[in-house]
């Protein structure tokens, strides 16, 4: 039996039964007559996530991206909805009680506020979202980690 041959919900083997108007192979159950098509959500989601990353990291607008894909702006927003819900792991997990020789502290402003980050040369240790870089926000960031030997800052204003 072919690996590509799906099984019906009734458990029977399905056979090819032509294609849809889109060109997707249609499958029909030999036993109960049910018809279906195989879906590869992993491939679809990977393509959508690639477009989402492109939209977030380049100057391409949502309208231009939608036009390039032959869909409306609303469709692109709907496709991207799940991408915004990605759970960001806590970088402090697994770094308990570790004292770093040197860390770098800096803030990056976005449309949603300011992200202040504590990092080493090769990875992020902790971050904190705030409206503006203030002493209190840096204290909130640093209270999550052990005091380093040296902290490097950009000098601010």
Automatic annotation (TrEMBL):
Name recorded for this polypeptide: Helix-turn-helix transcriptional regulator
Organism of derivation: Corynebacterium sanguinis
């Amino acid at each position: 039996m072919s690996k590509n041959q799906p099984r019906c919900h009734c458990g029977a083997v399905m056979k090819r039964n032509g294609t849809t108007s889109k060109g997707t192979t249609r499958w029909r159950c030999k036993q109960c007559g049910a018809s279906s098509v195989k879906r590869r959500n992993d491939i679809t989601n990977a393509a959508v996530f690639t477009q989402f990353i492109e939209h977030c990291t380049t100057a391409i607008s949502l309208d231009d991206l939608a036009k390039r894909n032959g869909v409306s702006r609303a469709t692109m927003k709907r496709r991207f909805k799940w991408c915004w819900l990605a759970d960001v792991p806590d970088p402090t997990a697994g770094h308990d009680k570790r004292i770093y020789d040197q860390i770098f502290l800096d803030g990056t402003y976005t449309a949603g506020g300011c992200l202040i980050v504590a990092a080493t040369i090769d990875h992020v240790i902790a971050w904190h979202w705030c409206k503006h870089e203030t002493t209190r926000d840096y204290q909130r960031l640093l209270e999550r980690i052990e005091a380093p030997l040296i902290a490097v800052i950009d000098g601010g204003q």
